[in-house]
Amino acid sequence: xxxxxxxxxxxxxxxxxxxxxxxxxxxxxxxxxxxxxxxxxxxxxxxxxxxxxxxxxxxxxxxxxxxxxxxxxxxxxxxxxxxxxxxxxxxxxxxxxxxxxxxxxxxxxxxxxxxxxxxxxxxxxxxxxxxxxxxxxxxxxxxxxxxxxxxxxxxxxxxxxxxxxxxxxxxxxxxxxxxxxxxxxxxxxxxxxxxxxxxxxxxxxxxxxxxxxxxxxxxxxxxxxxxxxxxxxxxxxxxxxxxxxxxxxxxx
Length: 252
What we know:
The chain is α/β, with parallel strands linked by helices. The protein has 11 helices and 8 strands.
């Protein structure tokens, strides 16, 4: 079982990237479990026809006692979808909510029951503390990928995340696999990201170009491979998915 956590600044396109990678991996015949770790609970929308699925925290609040089938929704391509959810707005800690969701999934033996080949954690990355660091320090993920663009705040967040991952790495937790450049087509973007990657001592695993088919697919509540399977972007996601399943990645 390969377990990868994806971090990145809010709005960078991380959830879009993760859901498209999950779809690509499922199309390769793998059993994929995607766990959204963001209070917005929108990580898996492209896999569920644009619909929000019940979150772990919402179900725990409403029912108290839940079964694993209540928490896991089969999405397009057979991707298993889970959303941790968050506290009632203005009340409680979002990070603590993630911890509660993870503990419940573990209590119900989600990995033993579904036996996924790949687990994809989609984690809000503006802060790396408390529950948001759970996939790194809790022994859940083996590797961390950071989604970034060449925008200053995106690179700033990526640097903070990389530092956190490396500090946890010395304790035997998840290691930093590298950066995924989700291009925004800003001036000198490739050079800016490469310079930042050098400072982080992390490779750029792949460059995803900016393409309008991504937004068109999202408007349909679908992944690119489902809505536009013959598109260049669908091929890009398939290629990146293949690289993630290998020991190392390459620049594109």
